[in-house]
Specification:
By secondary structure, this protein is mainly β. The chain contains no helices and 11 strands.
Length: 123
């Protein structure tokens, strides 16, 4: 199975942009649906976006739709999350996750997780 490592988090002002990356080890990256979740202290992990293994279907939570874009590079085994017009409520630890074969919005259905990367949006 793949192992996942996120990068690209940081501190940004309201209205700014960041691009998160999730690098996957192993040669089976293309078999997995990939998703981004986020979590703040004391809250459950929240679905952000998901992309199928064929790079043909994407889905977003209502709170990020139109501002965030999920994409993947199966040749280089990397998942991305482009985040534009960031708001203070986007502040969280962002996690990438993998499952096979179907997409899901539910964190409990993912069994492979990265370690997370902190995103902080200042007002």
């Amino acid at each position: 199975q793949v192992q996942l490592v996120e990068s690209g988090g940081g501190l940004v002002q309201t209205g700014g942009s960041l691009r998160l990356s999730c690098a996957a080890s192993g040669r089976t990256f293309g078999l997995y649906a990939m998703a981004w979740f986020r979590q703040t202290p004391g809250k459950e992990r929240e679905f952000v976006a998901v992309i199928d293994q064929f790079d043909s279907a994407t889905y977003y939570s209502g709170s990020v739709k139109g501002r965030f874009t999920i994409s993947r590079d199966n040749g280089h085994h990397i998942l991305y999350l482009q985040m534009d017009n960031l708001q203070p409520e986007d502040t969280a630890v962002y996690y990438c996750a993998a499952r096979s074969p179907q997409i899901s919005r539910f964190a409990a259905e993912y069994h492979i997780w990265g370690q997370g990367t902190q995103v902080t949006v200042s007002s």
